[in-house]
User: What shape does this take?
Amino acid sequence: MAFVDESLAKGLVKRIFRSLYKTEQVYAINDINTSHRKQCNKSKNKCKTKNTAVFIAERYADTSKWQLIWGEWTLFNDKASFNLGTDPLEDYDKIAFDLTFQVRGGYSYKTYYIVLTKHALIRLIMRCQESIVNPHELYKFLKTITQKLVYSSLELANKTARTELESEGYIILNGIYLPMVFSIGFNKAHQRVGVCSIKTFMPEHYDSAIRSLKKTKPLKPSENFFDYQELFVILDE
Assistant: This one.
């Protein structure tokens, strides 16, 4: 397995944070003068053209009830303001995928996150066996794994919904062990927020990964986002 030097990975993470700090988030289009279908089309096209935006799922795409699930990688901090960019760059210590729900009559974002700490991001760059030497290459790689991360987080969210307790699990992705923890909190607008944190990226042959593999089996999430629709009131038909 090829490894990237840690000092180079740390330097790249600093560049990534600066890049995201300067990047304006897409957000869902909410124009009363534009039809719902046109709004969804514009958002879906953004996922194709903007490197930090990722399409996740959709249904009823051929009707006026189109439900579009997508999101964007952005800076994140539990204590930062609701709007990105209103706090200084040094206050942000994580990046996160901000899941967006776009349905007829409204949309929702900043209520469900997949979070990577700086530590996890550094380990990702060092161990993912991909050539990541600039922010663009990181976003390109994240696009390939984001859907898997979202579905795995939903499996944990299901457990938390049943017990109201923090839940943990892991997945194996291209030979990499990814431990995850899901918890519930509140955002700056006092909305209930689901947060799934990726602790680290580790080759599955590492001792701590092997110990975890012996104790429990990896998460096996559904590959249909809407199997988890009960978690999100906005998806009620």
Q: What stands out?
A: The mean pLDDT is 89. Residues 6-24+74-235 form one domain.
